[in-house]
Structure formats: structure tokens, C-alpha cells
Amino acid sequence: MSEKRLDVLAVTAHPDDAELICGGTLIRCVDKGYRVGALELTGGESGSRGNALRRAREAEAAAEVMGLAVRESLELPDAQLVDTVENRVKLAEAIRRLGPRVLILHNNESWRHPDHGVAMNLGRAAAFLAGLKMIPGEGYLQRPEKILYCQAYT
Predict the structure, then answer these.
(1) What are phi and psi of 101, to 5 degrees?
(2) Which of 3, 79, 111, 121 has an alpha carbon within 20 to 30 A of 47's alpha carbon?
(3) Residue 21: phi, psi to the nearest 5?
(4) Are 86 and 55 contacting, i.e. CB atoms less than 8 angstroms apart?
């Protein structure tokens, strides 16, 4: 469990998705004194630009510039993201450990990449599971207070 829970956590499919769909919001939250994090589900290794190592380095650099308290990846397979019970539980464990009060997800419309819709479904399901005491995982046994969906037309 982290020393102090997050106020806001963006859960996205790929490195750079958080910056593209809600980067301004995350920076604004940091500027207001909130503890903010980003969690991508994949490493973006199937992307046409760069590779997983380069994208990870860019994500870390962006996290530093944005002032994020946490930047992590679940390292699920890019372009093969699937909404499974195993993936839901893995994400629920991360949500419990980080304890966000607000979760930011992709929206359920206008997805360009199939992983974005799956990421939204996984995030919503995992947020619910995080509050169930029979689901494994250490940390904050409660659901985020609020889920926000980001509109993106890319």
C-alpha cells in the first residue's frame, strides 16, 4: 500500500493516453495540491511510433513534468487487451493499493483503438471489485468515490 492514497488516478490503455485525454486536468489537480497518478494497462509495444522502452521513458519524463506522484503500467498485452476476470482483479488490486478517490477513464464512445474501450470496461469493473472484501488485494477496501470519463476524438 502506498504511504498516502491518491486523490486522482487516470487509468488508460497506453503510455501517453493520459497526457492526450486528460493531461491538462491531471496537471491542474497537481497544481491544486492533489496527489495524482497515471496507470496504463499496456506498454504500448504494438504501436506504430517508437517501442515499449521509448514509450516507457517518455511516460516517466511526462510524469515528472506533470508532477505525478505515481506512474505505473500493468504490462498487459498491447492491441490484445481483453476484459477478463483475471485482468479485472489485477486492476482492482492496483486500485486498492493506490486508493484513488477519483478515477479517470476513457469514454465509451469515439474510440479509435479497440484497447480504449476495453480499458474503460476494465476500469469500471475493477473499481467495483475494489470494494468487495472477498476479492484479493491489500490496500483500501473501498471503491473510488467518482469515475470521470474523458472525451477524446483521436
Answers:
(1) -85, -30
(2) 121
(3) -95, -25
(4) no
- Residue 1 included in any domain: no
Q: Where are any strands of DSSP class E within the chain?
A: 8-12, 36-42, 70-76, 102-106, 146-150
Note whether residue 122 is domain-resident: yes
Contact by Cβ (8 Å): 99, 2: yes
pLDDT at 25: 97
Say which amino acid occupies 131.
G
Q: Within 10 Å of residue 93's Cβ, how many Cβ atoms?
A: 19
Rounded Cα distance between 97 and 87, Å, is 15
User: For the chain, how many structural domains are there in total?
Assistant: 1
Q: In DSSP terms, which residues pair with 30 in a beta bridge?
A: none
Instruction: Give the residues of the chain that fall short of pLDDT 50.
Output: 1-2
How crowded is residue 41: how many other Cβ atoms within 10 Å of its Cβ? 26
Does a structural domain hold residue 79?
yes
* pLDDT tens track for 92-136: 999 999 999 999 999 977 567 899 999 999 999 999 999 999 998
Task: Examine residue 2 and state whether it is found in any structural domain, yes or no.
Answer: no
Q: Which domain holds residue 54?
A: 8-150
Length reported for the chain: 154
Instruction: Write the DSSP symbol of residue 61.
Output: H
